[in-house]
Amino acid sequence: MADLDTLYAHIEEHAADYVEKLREVVAIPSVSSDATLRPKVHEMGLWLQAELERLGAETKLHYPGTHVMDGEELELPPIVLGTYGTDESKKTVLVYGHYDVQPASLSDGWTSDPFTLTELDNGRMVGRGSTDDKGPVLGWLWVVEAHQQLGIDLPVNLKFCFEGMEENGSEGLDEMIVAEADGYFANVDAVCISDNYWLGTSKPCITFGLRGVSAFALTVTGPGWDLHSGVYGGTLHEPMTDLIHLMGTLVKPNGEILIPGIMDNVADLTEEEEALYDVLDFDVSELEAAAGAQTLIHDDKKQTIMHRWRYPSLSLHGIEGAFSGQGVKTVIPAKVMGKFSIRTVPNQTPDEIAEKVKAHLEAEFEKLGSKNTMHVEALHGGKCWVGDLNHPNFKAGTRATEKVYGVTPDFTREGGSIPVTLTFQDALGKSVLLLPMGRADDGAHSINEKLDKSNYLNGIKLLATYLHELAAETDL
Amino acid sequence: MADLDTLYAHIEEHAADYVEKLREVVAIPSVSSDATLRPKVHEMGLWLQAELERLGAETKLHYPGTHVMDGEELELPPIVLGTYGTDESKKTVLVYGHYDVQPASLSDGWTSDPFTLTELDNGRMVGRGSTDDKGPVLGWLWVVEAHQQLGIDLPVNLKFCFEGMEENGSEGLDEMIVAEADGYFANVDAVCISDNYWLGTSKPCITFGLRGVSAFALTVTGPGWDLHSGVYGGTLHEPMTDLIHLMGTLVKPNGEILIPGIMDNVADLTEEEEALYDVLDFDVSELEAAAGAQTLIHDDKKQTIMHRWRYPSLSLHGIEGAFSGQGVKTVIPAKVMGKFSIRTVPNQTPDEIAEKVKAHLEAEFEKLGSKNTMHVEALHGGKCWVGDLNHPNFKAGTRATEKVYGVTPDFTREGGSIPVTLTFQDALGKSVLLLPMGRADDGAHSINEKLDKSNYLNGIKLLATYLHELAAETDL
Ligand SMILES: [Zn+2]
Ligand SMILES: [Zn+2]
Ligand SMILES: [Zn+2]
Ligand SMILES: [Zn+2]
């Protein structure tokens, strides 16, 4: 294996350059959900292409077409593809990241302009996209650059896949991956994504699991149009009353899901899994701080984490078609749609969940004795994902973390989903490793998003080391 | 009493003039809830002032000031006040109406331009404001004009009060009435409002009761900000879950209100009252047609009408702060506000209702065992109103109806509120009669609003006859 210490020293020496480049890209407000900023998303994509070309990668822009947003037809930003190295004796690693960001404005409460990278005394670099996901995306570039500058051979071939619509539904991405599975991505041996976060603020982690999500729309329809509650109140079955009763049969205030059979396929807790929770760098007070409230259901850390990662949860998101403005409007809404979703875990499947939800709601609606009509629609079902910690890809990530940070990483899951993880795994049939750069308190989608400078630099070292460790794996 | 037949014949002869004038005012789109049309509301107020002046009334414009709508500060339209006759030997009748209208546009589904009065073969005059409330307001003017043209002495003094904000909260009206109770309105003996509708389509009615309304906002607060359901789902008490459970404890799908003690003060049904329901011109199929659904709770006419008029009802209007858009957003809303209101009846009071609602919700929230916080706010409480059918004002309205239509009117209530009714009664201490001109199917706030030409003409006769009958009352 190459001299990693030389590599690490080089990275530390070039810290100022890396920060300048991050400043440059944070200044491009590539907000994918803002139609007026769509040109900036394109600009950011081209910036990345140019950098990849400068580093000697062969690049290709995949334009997925157009989509309609806020009534406007917009050109989707390009998926930036790159190939660096085609040495058949080397393994090929596909790295994914996204160059679009969440919206941000000073008026949301930022303490500095969100699109001006602002370095604080405590080492924080504040700016939209710093940690999600421009910092990690740039990290991959500096790994290549550092090897070139030091004359160290990069021990793997790289495939890059950087998209510009991650914060806005990743439109066109899945189709492209599936279409290129045997094409552009044919020789990929392993996948690595750096787009999530440590569990806490001091200990790095390797992420091996994500919950799935099954979303539903529950519609109750009655009158032909909205009615005045003065004129009709008391005379007819009101859709809102039915809907509220139905939504109340889904979940208890303590989080218990009331749908019969919903827990049937939840994987049993093994001793091996249970042991992972004990060592985690996590305190419930951090979760409370991040949520801005002391309203946790469970008192202890282990139960809290397990209900975030390995048990399903059901959230009621809202109601479409009812009055949602300020004040009060004495309306009887004619048609109301309750929106809720279930975070799913192994070994639940979207089909199974949808069936149980429908059966339950139909039975409950029957009990109401209402003359209204009810309809349940499964909106989308993303499967849960669990990676194999014993796979060489994870072993490489683990050893890389140990080398850079000197500790065994936490082995974590996430409560949310990163759909592309499963797409890569299913389409390419390869292991996908989630290898985060930032910390739990980076505030990815919040105000004052930041990336600690130490996480940035150690993150670059981590990505580099991971590639060397992976190259050294004989079982891949 | 003057020769009513001469008066009736004159009114029939001048039908074309009255229709032309209605066409003229329908063409002024005085939509009070549309900022861009506010100048048209002012124009309509000045049109009325000019007509009153032409008829010899002394007029006065009361400008209530400004209000903010859609972020714009707008001048409120004038309340047009008029005095016609100051003969101390005559009684003084105050008539109220409104000259603003609901929004309307062809794209809503109108079969003709809403601001062009369109006469159909079946006698319908279609146009926004035709029945609500420009037709009735003009009716009062033609009563005065007809007397002048015929040289018949108007048997009462009149006070006019026409507002331009009825469809948008009647801002400034109550304050003015209270302030002028012992001033401009000091000598008023009785009040008449023509701004509601027959119960059905063939039999006239006198309206003597209105339900009140008590509106509430039920707030549940948890996290400091909206959270991602993937990250937090299962770990903390979600405000939406609590709120949905609480809203579910308010009312059953069959309309039964579940708040303890809520029915305690509902007036007993007397034989005298019960007899009124038997003769009503009403069929549940009309209500079904108007609601666009066959979802009535009660099968028979009497129960349906009683639950519309004389029993309270509770409607759940919606939720503020939750996701209300299309599709799904996997959010855990941090603070959600359920909006609901109770239509109240004699002898319920807003204070009593508010107390019972709060006590109930506090008890139910306690049962949830949630760490979130709950707050119940009584938004506004309009009292219910019941007039005395034996009062000379009502007797005069009844006899007038019998003379014009040849039938005893239905004695009806309304499920909704007309707040100014109670303001006049309380501020002036005088009887208020609701004497409708139009029919149940006029579609006041809907597309293709219409006034039947026969209702317009008979309505003018009715208002005229009412004034004569009232003048003949010795007990007033
Ligand atoms: Zn991201
Ligand atoms: Zn993100
Ligand atoms: Zn009206
Ligand atoms: Zn109206």
Automatic annotation (TrEMBL), chains A, B:
The record's free-text note on cofactor binding: Binds 2 manganese ions per subunit.
PROSITE patterns the record matches: ARGE_DAPE_CPG2_2
Entries under InterPro entries matching the protein: ArgE/DapE_CS, CNDP/DUG1, Cyt/Met_Dipeptidase, Peptidase_M20, Peptidase_M20_dimer
Keywords, sorted A to Z: Hydrolase, Manganese, Metal-binding, Metalloprotease, Protease
Entry's Gene Ontology BP terms: proteolysis
Chain sites annotated for binding Mn(2+) 1: 132, 167, 445
Catalytic site positions: 100, 166 (proton acceptor)
Peptidase M20 dimerisation domain location: 209-366
Molecular function GO terms recorded: metal ion binding; metallodipeptidase activity
Superkingdom of origin organism: Eukaryota
Cofactor annotation: Mn(2+)
Binding-site list for substrate: 195, 228, 330, 343, 417, 445
Marked site (Important for catalytic activity) residue numbers: 228
Binding locations of Mn(2+) 2: 98, 132, 195
Cross-referenced Gene3D superfamilies: 3.30.70.360, Zn peptidases
Family, as annotated: Belongs to the peptidase M20A family.
Protein name listed in UniProt: Peptidase M20 dimerisation domain-containing protein
Record organism: Allomyces macrogynus (strain ATCC 38327)
